[in-house]
């Protein structure tokens, strides 16, 4: 399998980033990922409620090719994360305001409150589930 | 002549705004307008160096239909301004970070330092031109 293309963050232009954000499904994916602090908790397959598999693949590709997300493949799983540190360094303040703006949009697709499944329960709390 | 369409700012979705920003010429126009503090100092015809007239019209339309700019027609002149207050109210912090990001992009088209022509010279200073 050929490795997935991830652009050098310095090659990403602002217009590329905005093009990748110009879709409610991609903004919904971004908002969901922004809530995940742990690496490898978000799988591409978690987003099947957002769109058909082929359309999802297209959207994941748009986010990845614009330098916004990183996709890691392991076996049959594909893990997704935001390239937060790199983006914050290249475009200071932009990602935060984009995520904040998207969070307030009531029309974006969302994952349920139980997502991501298997997130660590902080010490001292017990899960009721 | 039929009046130009300007969307109600509450009908503008974040994805619409990002779609309008997904082009270096439109980002260049936005950065130029962000430097203008006076109303009616920016004319559409000031941007002829950025693109052909028909392409410029297309870009002005995209910015206007996404609620980012307002266009006012008077006689044969078309004046352009950012809907800053409305945007700041609807998407707090977004416009500033977008403009800041675009300002740092060395590849956007720019207007010369003499633009906008006829800007008021502050009291106590004399123009050397």
What are its keywords?
homodimer, 129 residues, mainly alpha, two-stranded antiparallel ribbon
Structure description:
Chain A is globular. Chain A is mostly helical and 129 residues long. Chain A is 38% helix and 9% strand. In chain A, a hairpin with a 2-residue loop joins strand 1 and strand 2. Chain A has a two-stranded antiparallel ribbon with strand order 1-2. Chain A binds chain B through residues 13-16, 18-19, 21-24, 27, 91-94, 96-98, 100-102, 105, 107, and chain B through 13-16, 18-19, 21-24, 27, 91-94, 96-98, 100-102, 105, 107.
Number of E-type strands of chain A: 2
Give the biggest beta sheet of chain A: 2 strands, antiparallel
Helix fraction bin of chain A:
25-40%
Mean pLDDT of chain A: 89
Structural category of chain A is mainly alpha
User: Could you tell me how far the N terminus lies from the C terminus of chain A, measured between alpha carbons in angstroms?
Assistant: 38 Å
Oligomer: homodimer
Question: Radius of gyration of chain A, Cα only, in angstroms?
Answer: 15 Å
Q: Would you identify the regions of chain A where 5 or more consecutive residues have pLDDT less than 50?
A: 120-129
Read across the widest sheet of chain A, the strand sequence of neighbours is: 1-2
Strand content of chain A: 5-15%
Elements of chain A, N to C (H/E): HHHEEHH
Number of helical regions of chain A: 5
